């Protein structure tokens, strides 16, 4: 058994139960000094102590497993990449801070985000003309952060939806009739199909009529039915989660309610254990999963990024949706993959390459500047907006996981995944990327002085000074 040091987790568990070190020592039948050493990582957790902890406190051994701090490390590094923050911190110091004091690191990241938001709001409010508010964090971005902080998994809603799916005896790919019947029988809601102009659905709560557009595809119909059923079945829990989200504005709270209702709908149409079982059986083949459950490519990818229930986890994925201009309209992550808030995304990322091969799944092994490797697949999806001559919508959908999980995916078959793997170096946005020799750089890195030569040129758009400030 590999030595397991879990002092912070042990101390958290003890303090959550309002126990002293002496109390814990008596429960575990060890000395208080031994408990003190365990909590300060002076000694590793032994198997007998671990078994007693799981027995007495009802937690599984995974609770004490080393925490993946990759996301937190990336967030802290972005704080110190801010050109308005004085001082420098080495990568080793960041690693030590996040490993030993993760609570302090998270608080620092949260404070920095509030600081940036305050600075950006002041700049917007004091501009005399041409005020640009795009840099101010919008309510929908706050909602994204809420899901991101929870690894894109909301356990209470997921389990409630799975239970309702079982109670209604919904069958994969044939859920519409069951949802229509549930709305009628459980809540007296009548479902009708009629033209709604640009709308997709409208629920008249007073008349208890749910109107659906005939333009909706079968999978979309199921989700619209499921989202309204979510409000009726678990509205109290959705309201509680939205109220405890820490949002100052009503807009963010309402957006979170909608996001939670949509999450519930996904868990209802694609119930956790059934969907996870199918994903494992089909080796995460998105096309086959789409056919089996009767929903679209994007819906399957989004649901795959939520399978993080303790004791029954799927592959931890990051999910992203972008348009041709590089705008990220959806992003969720259950991995350490970090979506930068500064400088946009990397043009070398396979998600953008998908637009050159419409409808075809493309793959990439991408390496971040910290050496961590990810396996990505991407494909475009197109939606028709209406009749002839009306513009449609095209997005690229990306789904990625750490390279160590890639062998569980059918898309990795025939690819070298070891030291011979064909790796593409990418970054998390030019302003925070540490790759000085990238010819695709769109902005200079924050806090890095540039080499400006009057009578010389380079293939690099923003060449930095050397380590010693030389040319």
TrEMBL record:
- UniProt cross-references to SUPFAM superfamilies, sorted A to Z: lambda repressor-like DNA-binding domains
Looking up PROSITE patterns in the UniProt record yields: HTH_CROC1 (PS50943)
Gene3D superfamilies reported in the protein's UniProt record: lambda repressor-like DNA-binding domains (1.10.260.40)
UniProt xrefs under SMART domains: HTH_XRE
Keywords carried by this UniProt record: DNA-binding, Transcription, Transcription regulation
Q: Which residues form the HTH cro/C1-type domain?
A: 10-64
What CDD domains does its record include? Answer: HTH_XRE
| Membership in a protein family | Belongs to the short-chain fatty acyl-CoA assimilation regulator (ScfR) family.
**Entry-linked PANTHER family:** HTH-TYPE TRANSCRIPTIONAL REGULATOR, HTH-TYPE TRANSCRIPTIONAL REGULATOR SUTR
Q: What is this protein called?
A: DUF2083 domain-containing protein
This chain's source organism reads Amycolatopsis rubida
Lineage at the top is: Bacteria, Bacillati, Actinomycetota, Actinomycetes, Pseudonocardiales
């Amino acid at each position: 058994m590999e030595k397991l040091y879990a002092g912070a987790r042990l101390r958290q568990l003890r303090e959550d139960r309002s126990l002293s070190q002496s109390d814990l020592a008596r429960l575990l039948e060890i000395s208080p000094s031994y408990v003190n050493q365990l909590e300060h990582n002076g000694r590793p957790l032994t198997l007998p102590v671990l078994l007693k902890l799981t027995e007495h406190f009802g937690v599984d051994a995974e609770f004490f497993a080393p925490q993946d701090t990759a996301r937190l490390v990336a967030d802290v590094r972005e704080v110190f990449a801010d050109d308005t923050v004085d001082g420098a911190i080495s990568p080793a110091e960041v690693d030590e801070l996040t490993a030993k004091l993760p609570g302090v690191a998270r608080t620092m990241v949260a404070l920095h985000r509030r600081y940036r938001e305050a600075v950006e709001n002041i700049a917007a409010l004091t501009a005399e003309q041409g005020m640009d508010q795009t840099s101010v964090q919008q309510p929908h971005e706050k909602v994204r952060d809420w899901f991101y902080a929870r690894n894109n998994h909301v356990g209470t809603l997921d389990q409630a939806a799975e239970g309702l799916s079982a109670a209604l005896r919904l069958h994969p790919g044939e859920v519409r009739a069951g949802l229509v019947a549930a709305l009628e029988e459980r809540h007296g809601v009548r479902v009708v199909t009629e033209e709604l102009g640009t709308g997709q659905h409208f629920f008249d709560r007073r008349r208890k009529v749910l109107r659906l557009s005939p333009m909706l595809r079968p999978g979309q119909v199921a989700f619209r039915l499921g989202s309204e059923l979510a409000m009726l079945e678990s509205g109290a829990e959705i309201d509680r989660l939205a109220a405890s989200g820490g949002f100052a504005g009503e807009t963010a709270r309402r957006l979170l309610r909608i996001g939670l209702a949509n999450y519930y709908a996904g868990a209802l149409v694609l119930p956790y254990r059934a969907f996870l079982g199918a994903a494992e059986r089909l080796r995460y083949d998105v096309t086959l999963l789409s056919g089996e459950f009767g929903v679209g490519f994007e819906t399957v990818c989004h649901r795959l990024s939520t399978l993080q229930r303790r004791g029954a986890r799927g592959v931890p994925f990051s999910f992203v949706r972008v348009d041709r201009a590089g705008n990220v309209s959806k992003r969720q992550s259950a991995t350490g993959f970090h979506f930068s808030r500064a400088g946009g995304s990397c043009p070398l990322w396979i998600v953008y390459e998908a637009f050159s091969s419409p409808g075809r799944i493309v793959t990439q092994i991408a390496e971040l500047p910290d050496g961590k490797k990810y396996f990505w697949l991407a494909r475009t999806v197109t939606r028709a907006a209406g009749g002839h001559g009306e513009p449609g919508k095209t997005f690229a959908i990306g789904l990625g996981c750490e390279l160590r999980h890639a062998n569980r995916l059918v898309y990795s078959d025939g690819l070298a995944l070891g030291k011979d793997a064909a790796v593409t170096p990418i970054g998390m946005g030019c302003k925070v990327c540490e790759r000085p020799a990238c010819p695709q750089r769109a902005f200079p890195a924050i806090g890095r002085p540039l080499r400006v030569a009057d009578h010389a040129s380079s293939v690099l758009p923003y060449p930095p000074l050397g380590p010693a400030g030389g040319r």
